[in-house]
Write a structure and sequence with these properties.
The protein is an alpha/beta fold. The chain is built from 13 helices and 8 strands. The protein has a 4-stranded parallel sheet, sandwiched between helices. A two-stranded parallel sheet has the order 5-6. Helix 9 links the parallel strand 5 and strand 6. Helix 8 runs parallel beside helix 13 and helix 10 packs across helix 11. The longest helix has 27 residues.
């Protein structure tokens, strides 16, 4: 839905990256000279993948070189790889990426990869039949390029705890094949972590079951389709999850404000780092004008600094559960 222009830019970047890789080879060798030949190199695009790998590796992390490409808060939908990023992917043992339209650069990077034995996990491929097409719901701003014939899929699969269980199993399987000496360790770590995910899944279901309200409303993009579908919730939003739009029309604001009134909603939601402009305008156009504005974290701007400060996939999803609980009152 986005990016014919972006695709052209990606192609240009790939050409420059390939030529730059030769020039940067000495730098790459310098930066990796302290990495043992026995070191297993894993490259992930986004934070959830990175954290899942850490959970499966556990104490074996000492012989891993683990990279998160989007480590400075860059959104998946606007990320473009540098020559250094492509060099890291080219040489790794395991590469994990989402696999949607935002990752259109990946095919070229893998085609020219130096490590022909690299294992690759495409999240959308792993989830296969459970991946959802992007949905333009009633009242939502349609994007400008809506006439494109190509089917677009909702990339935000990581925001389902149930999907996370499937994806962690896929990571464990691949790591065990790369490092068979530690298969038992990876299997045990994976089982323990999936048990935690299942417990959190139950907590989400309990919160929804105990709530009289079954609808959430976003004055923002809506990347939480997989989450709400897991628990039978309905939703309304200003934009689809992958939208690049930032201005909502009068009609959209009016529709969403009227839905808040009709459903007697006490909360209007946004995603992390929102300026809340649309959400505030929706509230200002309701009858009571007293709704809370709360944020659910889509983990699209989690940084390496956040990771150092202790942020994990489970910690974010637990915080999201508390926000959801408040929104469903």
């Amino acid at each position: 839905m986005k990016k014919k222009i972006l695709a052209v830019m990606t192609a240009i970047l790939m050409m420059f990256s390939l030529s730059a890789c030769t020039k940067n080879n000495a730098e790459a060798q310098e930066s990796t000279s302290n990495i043992s030949k026995d070191t297993i190199k894993v490259v992930t695009t986004i934070f959830p993948e990175y954290d899942w790998v850490k959970q499966v590796i556990g104490k074996e992390i000492d012989h891993y070189d683990l990279t998160m490409l989007l480590d400075n808060g860059v959104d998946l939908h606007s990320y473009q790889p540098t020559a250094q990023d492509i060099a890291k992917v080219s040489d790794c043992d395991l590469f994990i990426y989402v696999g949607g339209e935002s990752d259109s650069w990946v095919d070229g990077a893998l085609k020219d990869a130096a490590n022909k034995n690299m294992k690759v996990i495409n999240l959308l491929d792993v989830l296969s039949g459970s991946v959802k097409e992007e949905e333009v719901k009633e009242g939502m701003e349609a994007e400008k390029e809506e006439d494109e014939e190509e089917v677009e899929y909702d990339e935000h699969v990581w925001l389902s705890v149930r999907n996370a269980e499937v994806l962690v199993n896929a990571i464990e399987k691949n790591l065990s094949e790369i490092d068979p000496d530690n298969t038992d360790v990876y299997k045990q770590n994976s089982e323990n972590y999936i048990s935690d995910l299942q417990e959190l899944d139950k907590d989400y279901q309990d919160v929804v079951d105990q709530s009289t309200c079954k609808t959430v409303l976003f004055g923002d993009r809506f990347p939480f389709r997989y989450m709400v579908d897991d628990y039978g919730l309905d939703y309304y939003a200003a934009f689809v999850g992958c939208s690049a739009e930032s201005e909502a029309s009068f009609e959209t604001i009016k529709f969403l404000a009227e839905k808040v009134d009709a459903l007697n909603l006490k909360t209007v939601l946004t995603i992390e780092n929102s300026d809340q402009k649309i959400a505030k305008t929706i509230v200002e156009n309701t009858k009571t004008k007293d709704q809370k504005i709360l944020a659910l974290d889509s983990m699209q701007s989690t940084t390496s600094q956040d990771v150092e400060n202790g942020t994990t996939y489970l910690s974010v999803m637990k915080n999201n559960l508390e926000v959801l609980k408040e929104a469903l009152k």
